[in-house]
Amino acid sequence: MLKIAVLYPDLLGTYGDGGNGLVLLERARRRGIDASLAAVGLHEDVPDASIYLLGGGEDGPQRLACDLLAKGSFSSRVESGAHVVAVCAGLQILGHSFSVEGNEEYAGLGLVDVVTRRGSSRSVGELAVRVGDRWLVGFENHGGRTTLGSDIAALGAVARGRGNDGVVDGYRSQRIWATYAHGPVLAMNPWFADEVLATVLGEELEPLASVADRLYAERCATLSLRPLE
Ligand code: GLN
């Protein structure tokens, strides 16, 4: 059974990033894969899950979400095998520290070797990232700039927008995908949703055609992103 858990959508759901959970659930179920989706509310324990989803959030809710996650079992569950897709505030929370409003540095969960500092301006607008031979599209709205440690790989190279620093976006470790892209990113990038699903399930998936394919192609065309394959 694939267990999907969206963490604190009340705090980390500014741009409907909780929709990432629905996308994984539907893409699994349409292939006949048994899957469940939990939305974890404030002050609820973090349940056992195959994959956790963390979304974006404003500075205050982001700090509260970080405090709640630090107190519970989230980190140990990730360290013992769970997967994570983290967007924007979620991406920052998993790192060593983030400084958002007023440059105040705040301790993150330290699960990933990255640090986020306040930039001189917000990064707002379209975001397009080359991930291997695919484009990942979405939009960004954040004040943080993220620096990767020497042992952590970026998710991809920025072609439009800023992502972490104008050069790369997000990060990718064995079980964690992180990006600045809202959308929800798994709705806008069906190939990415399937890459996550296949990795979590440890199996190849049958192709699954849906309206998301056409919307993705239209988005890439609108952004003048040439096909990479
Ligand atoms: N509060 C963070 C920042 O501004 C994250 C914003 C977001 O998740 N959209 O950098």
Description:
By secondary structure, this protein is of the alpha/beta class. It has helices spanning 19-29, 59-71, 74-79, 89-93, 185-188, 190-201, 211-222, and strands at 2-7, 35-40, 51-54, 83-87, 97-99, 105-107, 114-131, 134-148, 156-160, 168-169, 171-172, 176-179. The strands form two sheets. The chain has a six-stranded mixed beta sheet. Strands 5, 6, 7, 8, 9 and 10 form a six-stranded mixed beta sheet that branches. Helix 1 (19-29) links the parallel strand 1 and strand 2 (35-40). The N and C termini lie far apart (33 Å). Glutamine binds at residues 14, 56-59, 62, 88-89, 100, 141-144.
Strand content: 25-35%
Determine and state the CATH class of the domain at 2-99 and 111-118 and 170-222.
Alpha Beta
Report Rg. 16 Å
Could you tell me the number of beta strands? 12
Low-confidence stretches: none
Structural class: alpha/beta
CATH fold label of the domain at 2-99 and 111-118 and 170-222: Rossmann fold
Main-sheet strand order equals 2-1-3-4-12-11
Mean pLDDT: 96
